[in-house]
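> forwarded from #structure-qc
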């Protein structure tokens, strides 16, 4: 009797083990009506998650050289800026620039108002503008953008 019981148990265990290369049959289980609503809330009340803000690429740094006198006469300064950024001139540089020259391959725009607004001198490229008075823009620039 013990031998037949052990043999039966062994046969049952052998039938329960998955055979490699065979796929067990999947049975669909019916879900009671209202199951999802009672467990996760109303199906129709989903809200869309706000999109993740786009990642901003690192911007290249470029330079422009500006002077308070024409013909690049002192006082002068080399400014480092991120391409595409708007920069307001502050202190002694606001409404004081008379000559400007960006790096080779860079194009700058000077603006009359801060925030890169108002009338402007566009497409300033190397070697630059020696006298902004030629553009009726001497000592009036308040902001700059270079790309």
């Amino acid at each position: 009797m013990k031998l037949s019981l052990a043999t039966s148990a062994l046969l049952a265990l052998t039938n329960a083990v998955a055979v490699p290369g065979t796929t067990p049959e999947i049975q669909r289980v019916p879900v009671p009506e209202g199951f999802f609503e009672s467990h996760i809330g109303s199906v129709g009340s989903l809200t869309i998650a706000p999109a993740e803000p786009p990642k901003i690429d690192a911007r290249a740094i470029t330079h422009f050289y500006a002077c308070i006198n024409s013909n690049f006469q002192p006082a002068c300064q080399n400014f480092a800026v991120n391409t595409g950024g708007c920069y307001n001139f502050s202190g002694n540089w606001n409404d004081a620039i008379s000559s400007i020259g960006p790096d080779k391959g860079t194009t700058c725009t000077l603006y009359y108002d801060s925030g890169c607004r108002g009338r402007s001198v566009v497409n300033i490229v190397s070697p630059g503008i020696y006298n902004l008075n030629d553009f009726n823009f001497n000592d009036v620039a308040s902001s700059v953008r270079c790309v």
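QC bot note: The mean pLDDT is 79. The first helix runs from residue 2 to 16.
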